[in-house]
Every structure is written in C-alpha cells, then in structure tokens.
Amino acid sequence: MEYDLASLSGLFGHAFSMWWIMLPAIVVGLIAGAVPGFAAHNTIIILLPLTLALNVEYALAFMVALYCASHLGGGIPAILVNIPGTGGAAATTLDGYPMTRKGEAVKALSLCFVASVLGGFVSSVVTLFALPALSRVGYYIHSVEMVVVMLFGLALIASIAAKDMLKGLIAGAFGLMLGAMGADHIYATPRGTFGFLELFDGVPLVPALIGLFAISEALVMLESDALVEEGDQPKTAATWRESAREIFSAFSHWWQIIWTSLLGLVIGVLPGAGASIASFVAYQQSQFFSKTPEKFGTGHPQGVIAPESANNGVTTGTLVPLLAIGVPGGSTAAVMMIVLQFHGVPFGPRLFVEEPQLAYGVIAVMAVSYVMMIPFMFPMVRYMSRITVISTVYLAPFIVAFTLVGAFVPRGFLFDMGIAVAFGIIGYVARKTGYHVAAILIGVILGPLIERSFLLAMRISGNDPMVMFSSTIGNILWVMLILTLALPPIMSRRRAKLERLKDKSLTGPDA
Amino acid sequence: MSKTFDTAAFAAAATFAAAMGVIAPAHAQDADYPDTNVSITIPTGEGGGADRDARAITQVWSKYLDRNFEFSYYPGAAGQVGYEFFMKSEADGTNLMFSNIGPEVIMLELQDVPIEIGEDLVYIQKTSTEPMAIWVGANSEFETLEQLIEEAKTRPVTISVSRLPHPASIGMLALGEATGAQFNLIPYGGGNPTAMAAITGEVDASALPLANPITFGPEARVLGIFADENPVPEQTGNAPTVNEAAGTDLPPLTSSRAFAVQASVLEEYPERVEVLKQTIRETLADPDYIAAVEAAGVPAAFIDPGDQEAAMSEAAETAELATKYRELLTGDE
Amino acid sequence: MNDRSGARKPVGADLILPVCAALYAVYYVWSVWDFPAEAQLSGIILAGLLLSLVAIYMIRIIRGLSLGRYSLGMGNFFGPQESRKSRGIFFLLILAALVGLPWLGFTLSTFVFLAASFFVLGVRPIGRGIMIAAIGALTGWFFFIFLLGTHFPEGPFERLIGTVL
C-alpha cells in the first residue's frame, strides 16, 4: 500500500473514531493484565461471545486495544508487589521491585508506562511501514535459529545469578528440569508427571508463576509491616506534579526504549516466540550494552525499560504472521483469527488485497490504542504507587486470594491452584535461601520451548547435532551469544585492572 | 445470534450487556433438557481448526437448541488429556466432546489411554469429513507429487505433520512404503505451526487435512489428496489424488469431526441424545451454517451429516489402520 | 559467603532446594527409562547437568562443614520469631481456602479467607477487617464473574445471585 498523507490520516482518523469501543477495552485490558492468570488471550477467549457479536472492525479494535493494554497492565504488580501479571513481565520484577523497595515506585511505574506506550507505539508505526519486510523474518528464522535466540534468554540466568553463580545455576537447572515435565513433543509420552493427568501438558505456566512470585512474596512480605524499606517511605502521597515530572523524565530513555521495542517486535514476529522470550532477551542485551551493568538487579531504570518496551513490541510482532501469511504466530493471534474467519474476512495476503483498510487498520488501531493509554498513565502513576504504603497484613491476604483464583482461570482446574501453592513453597524456600525465583521461572518458561525447537531441528536433520551450526544466521547468532557471555567478565576484569593502575598512579608518587 | 451491532452507542452498551448475557440466560429459561449451558470439550488448542468449526456450528445450533455453549480446550498429549477429562465430566448429555475422529482414534489406540471407543465413548453425529492432503508452500520448488516422490527417493524429504498419531502421517508412511520414497515426518503439534513450517520452507512439504491448505489460499499448493477423487477441484487447483499421481493403491484417508458423548448417556438419556442428533442435523442443513462454513474458507462440500453408525464405523476403520502402523508411529522400533 | 570470622553460617535450609531438585531429577530419569530416545534426550541431559551442579554444591557444603565455617542450622528460614505463629496459621488458611473453594464458591471463600487472614494477622477492630474482606470479595465477584463471566467454582452466593437475576 502506498502511503500518502491522506490515506495515513484516514487510517488513524478512522482508528480514533472507534474510541468508544477501545476505551472500555483498555480498561478491561489494564485490569486483566494486572491480575495474574487473565492476561490477554484468556480474557479475549472469555469475551469471545461478545466479540463474535460485534462487527468485525469493532471486534478487532476491541481485541487489539485489550491486548496492548494488558501488556502494559502486566508491569504494574511486577513493580509494586514483585508479582508479574504475565510471563512477559517476569523480567520487570528484577529491577522494578527493588525500585519500589527503595521508595521509587512512582519513578518505576513512570518508566514502565512510558516504555510500554512509547515502545508499543514505535513498533506499531514501524510495522505499518515495514510489514512486508517483517513478514519475511519467519522465512529465515527456523528451529535452529530459535534455539539460539532462546539461549540468549537462558543466558539471563547467569547474569541474575551473579551473586552466587552456583546457586543461580542450580535454580535455573531445577527450573529447566521442571519445564521438561509433561508429554514429549514427538511421541506424546508423559514424563515426570507423578501420574497426574493435569501435568501431561507440562508445568502450567500461570500457576507456576503465581506460586513462585505471588504466594511466596505474600509469605515473605508478612515478615515486615511495610513493603518499602524503613527510612525510604515517601512522606506524602505522590502529587500530580511529581507524577507528571517522572513521566516526562522517563522519556529521556527514548533511545533504549526504541531499540528494545524493535528487538521485541522482531522476536514477536517469530513463530512460537513470545513476550517472555523477548523480555528476557531485551533485559539481558540491555545489561550487555549498558555502561553500568553492575547496577542491574538493584533497581536500575534500564532494567525496567528493557522488558517493558520489548513485551509491548511483541504485541505488534505476533500479529505480523497472521496479517502477512495468514498463520497466527501465538495464541492471542489465533483467537483473533477465529473472529476473522467467523466473519468471513480473508486473512493473510488476501486480506491486503481484498480489505486493505482492515489490514492496515488493525495496526493503526494498535498505534492509536497506545496513544489513548497516555491519559491513563498520570492517575495510575499517582494512585497506584500508593499500594506500597498499604500494610502487608492487608496486602498479603489480597494477593493470595486474587492470584490463587488467577491460577484457576487459564485451564479451569482446581488442581492448578494446588500447583500454585506447591510452587509457592518452592518460591519461599528459594527466596529464604538465596536461590533466585526468576532463575527458576526462566527455566520453566524456556525449557519446553527450547526442547521443542531443538527436537524439531534434530529430527529435520536426521538427528545430526551439527545442524545447530548449519545456517549462516544461526552461526552469527551463536557468535553473538558467545560474545555476550564472554565479554562482560573480561571487560570487568580489565576495568578492575585499570582502576588498580589508576589508584597506584594516584597514590604512587605521594607515597 | 450473529447479529451485527451498527450504532456506536448500542455497541458500547453491548460491552457490558453481552458480558451479563454470558451468565444470565442460564437460569432464565424453561426447565426442559438441556436446562443448563452445554459444555463442549475440544481436545486441541484454542484458535485451531476444531475451535473454528465448533464456533461456527454452535452459533447456528443455538437456533435449534436454545442454550449457550461453553468451550474448554485440552491440547495435551495429542488429545489424551481432553479425552480423559471429558470422561470425568458429568454424563447427562450436557457435556459433549467435539472430536476429530481420525487423529484421536489413532491416539487412543496407540497411547496408554483407559478409554474404549464404543464401550466408554460414542461418536453420535458427524459434522464434516475431509480427506488428508499433501501440500507445499507457494515458494516451494515442488510443482507435482511425482517430483516430491522422486526427490524422496534420493534423500529423506521432510514433511511437517500435526502429530505422529494422525491419518495424514499414516498416509505419508503408506505412500513411502508403496513407492520406496523416504519421508521424514516432523510433528509440529497443531495445524497452525505445521502449516507455518511448510509455508516458510523449514520443511519440504506438509501433510494435513485438506481444509488447512485451502484456508491458506494462495500461500499453499496442494500436490495430492488421499481420496478416491478430489471432492473440491476448484479450491485446490484441480489437484490429483495421491493414487492418480503416484500410481499407488492406497485406501482413502479421511477424518471426520463428530460430536461424542459418554456411552452411559446413550443408555440413561436416549431421548437427550436424540435431541442432540436431531438439532445437529438441522444445523448442518441450515443455509446460515453453510454460509458460515464457506465464509471461514472451508468448502461446503466437507459438511457431512453422517450418523452414529457412520461415525463409529469410521472409528473402527481408523483403529485398524493405527494398529497396522503402530511401530512407526510410537517409536517402538 | 566466606565469612571466616564470627559465628558459623547456617546452611541447613540452603540444602532443601538442591536436594529436592536432585530427587526430582532422579525420579524424572526413572520415569522416562523405557521411552524412545527422542523423549529421553533432553531430560537426561538436564538431569545430568542438575545432578552435577548439586554435587559440586554438596562438595562446597561438606568442605565448609568440615572446616567449621558452616553449620546445619536453619538460620532465618522461618523469619522473625514473633510473627511465626500468625504466618504459619496464614499458610494453613491458604490450604483451607483450596479445600473450601469447591463448596463455598469463589465469592464466599474469598470473603472467609480474607476475613480470617485479617483476623489472624492482627487487623483490629475485627469489624474493619470483615468489612474490607466483604468489599474485596464483592469487587472480585463483580469484575471476574459478573463482568467477565469467568467460570469460577459456584457456591451458595453465586447461585443466589443467579436466581435473583
């Protein structure tokens, strides 16, 4: 489609005209994203009877706005109470929650919202212009390359385990082991399930996430009266002026927001990848390129921005295969496809030929829904940061009550609430004894995904392990992965050496 | 049910009204069967072909069976999880299974599942039948099935399939046996990723139920169909049958979607089963339904109101095939 | 970690996770023993990795113990002494909520769980805790069940509302 000012303004104007359906969707999406277990695709499925009844354009606008808002919402509990609403927000806890503990909740929320909104907006606009090119990505990234991309995410275990590498690696390997539970990808034989049918699909992600983060956090937080460390308590509630100032100053990180959101966009385009992989990789890469990598994990603004802009970049990315090829790249896109099919709208290349307004309209709606979220940021930053002054005796029971039902939602099994409690115990033990819960979760999330891609690649090659080094793109990624892992220790040793030399030269002559 | 709300104000209100509608009607209507919502178990993932077809049917079905439908998805262990949970649900005719007879009967035969078709579970009414097909992405070098088979005689050709226990996988294994071609089956677990692998060229070709390549339109090229004749020549570029193209004599490989109930429902509530069968058949003949199927890109020729007897005999034939290819499909070599 | 001066570092609790992980790894390998190679491959690699890491960790602990740097105490595992009882009961309430949910339904069990937890954790006056619990449970009901139509387990409250509507 050739863009001129008229057609562009037409697209965006039309998207804005659907505000009445997008605003309620944004509200529902923000809340659903913030409650673990709902997330976008569960909520969209729950609301499918509604979306099927609407006309197709409104239905898409509703789903897309809800989808985008839920990714923004997922960061809120991650920052405030250390509970990611979705797997994609798990990396946000690494620096978001330490900021809250330092009394910087207002700042952390502002960073999260600005990164989400700007990142989501930029990646949707880029998609609008680069859709044909983006849709080709899937033709070059196959199972082999996916294995390496996911190893980037796995490498994050090493960086968050910096304090005690052995414990971090044990936690990560334990997560991978748990992630290997369930029916195998080729023959569907159940492995390590204790005979529970409910575990044949593997460890259900949402209950595991809720247990590791929410339940264990609730148990630990009761050890003190307040979330924020003593002395760091904000004296008064955040004012409008303060909220606005933090929001505006968050824009100074624009460059990092843009590149991490584009990274998210590209990962989102890949079939089978998703927000969690993108946010882990973005966090890991941000740390790699950061001038202050040692600050990551202690409440560093860049550590909040990376995962949040990446997981919002993913939202547009996952729609690309659906729009360009006609095959949904993820579960949310698959549900959207049902709605398109139900209304008899063609999808894939035919969509652009037969209904270009609708095809490009979806992406425009995405960009516009991020713009519409801007007014929501100010009150959310101002009032939500107040959660941190609520006493833990109220907070902990509420967290348990509402996240446990969240564990129930995705599959409707009471069993899953039991799993959440079991993972809650694992999480409690891990927290109290210096094993990082995020390392366990990364293993649980990435383990089965890596295994699947690895087995597919192996089977395609006729079980030749060298297939892992058989593609140019794959090999470039391998080199980058090795550099990412090897450079930071070398650099920090060199820096330490330089510092020592400098100290010597400073003190030398006088001594 | 498939109303379109046009005015802005009404649709805004509908956001809440429809959400209320999800729970309200359950208690608002008369007490005749079914007096609650009907739950449908789908043993594959949301957004897959079964989900698509089930949604299309229930939208029209609710005209004849005045109820709301609820869906649950259990894609685990090639459908085993769905079947086992379905057997645990209340056997009173309000819980139905929307099955895909071919792959699921093979799964029940090959995996260690304590469910006997006929004794525990009965397919009461078919809704559609489609043959399996071999197809490639639009960019593929293969123009015909002969070319693919020739290539497969020189090197193992990779074929993406939804899962190993599947009629399409059996078809490829049988074709390989008959022609001496080597087909390396790669199970991607679900129709969408399977198709994606063929379209992006990760694998050489794909074997799936025919509706899949048809819904992908110009992105897919059908090379051969496992049937006695091509039921939809127009939508498949006049693709030949596998037997025509390869000179083989393979049995037709089809799969039917069908509704199933627990066997005990047939004994305890025969009249309910009758209501179900009757209203499903009315739905299948409804012009609205035919239009909905075609709108989803699936040929109306696939609609098949086959009765219980037809469904059960298809299940029996499929079970026989599964036993024949057990070794190749389970890795017990 | 290498705190040579002062008291011995209690590492008893630190062993819980590696030991459980190792046990699961062994169970996993046992459960895939007869399976085709492709189903075993990744599990066996992972189990090998995990067991070697745990073995290295055990060597570290045993060395520390023999050098007198570590002790097998539980350390701060259960948190501050004064709130142990209330936190313990809170955990039991979580288990009770799991058991009670199928009978009480979402709204009532949420209310009872919240109210009981507030009471145990020391929210006073009691009436205030009960009121907050009621508001919380009703808000949850409104958003999740009424608006979104989520299929949470139904109980007396949901059925009552159902008949009224």
Kindly report the greatest chain-chain contact and the residue count on each side.
Answer: A-B, 60 and 71 residues
Individual helix count of chain A? 22
Please name the fourth-level CATH homologous superfamily of the largest domain in chain B: Bordetella uptake gene, domain 1
Low-confidence stretches of chain B: 1-31
Report the sheet-strand fraction of chain A. Answer: under 5%
Give the strand tally of chain B: 9
Order of helices and strands of chain B: HEHEHEHEHEHEHEHEHEHHHHH
The biggest sheet of chain B amounts to: 9 strands, mixed
The overall number of domains of chain B is 2
Uncertain spans of chain A, ≥5 residues at pLDDT below 50?
Answer: none
Percent strand of chain B equals: 15-25%
The multimeric state of the shown protein is: heterotrimer
Computed structural class of chain B: alpha/beta
What general form of chain A does the structure show? globular
How many domains in all of chain A? 1
Mean pLDDT metric of chain B: 86
Kindly provide the name of the CATH class of the largest domain in chain B.
Alpha Beta
Radius of gyration of chain B: 21 Å
CATH architectural group of the largest domain in chain B: 3-Layer(aba) Sandwich
Distance between the termini of chain B: 52 Å
Protein name (chain C): Tripartite tricarboxylate transporter TctB family protein
Transmembrane segments (chain C): 12-33, 39-59, 90-123, 129-149
Keywords (chain C): Membrane, Transmembrane, Transmembrane helix
Signal peptide (chain B): 1-28
Any overview of this molecule?
- The complex is a heterotrimer of chains A (about 500), B (about 325) and C (about 160).
- Chain A is mainly α and about 500 residues long.
- Chain A has one domain (about 5-470).
- In chain A, about 75% of the residues lie in helices and about 0% in strands.
- The longest helix of chain A is centred in the N-terminal third of the chain and has 36 residues, at about 105-140.
- With about 325 residues, chain B is of the alpha/beta class.
- In chain B, strands 1, 2, 3, 4, 5, 6, 7, 8 and 9 form a 9-stranded mixed β-sheet that branches.
- The longest helix of chain B is centred in the last third of the chain and has 17 residues, at about 310-325.
- Mean pLDDT of chain B is about 85; it is low at about 1-30.
- Chain C is mostly helical and about 160 residues long.
- Chain C folds into 2 domains: about 10-70; about 80-165, no CATH class.
- Chain C has 5 helices and 2 strands.
- Chain C has a two-stranded parallel ribbon with strand order 1-2.
- In chain C, helix 1 (about 15-30) runs antiparallel to helix 2 (about 35-65) and helix 3 packs across helix 4.
- The longest helix of chain C has about 40 residues, at about 85-120.
- Chain C is flat.
- Residues about 1-5 of chain C have low confidence and may be disordered.
- At the B-C interface, helix 1 of B face helix 2 and helix 4 of C.
- Chain A: InterPro entries: DUF112_TM (IPR002823).
- Chain A: It holds the Pfam family TctA.
- Chain A: This is Tripartite tricarboxylate transporter permease.
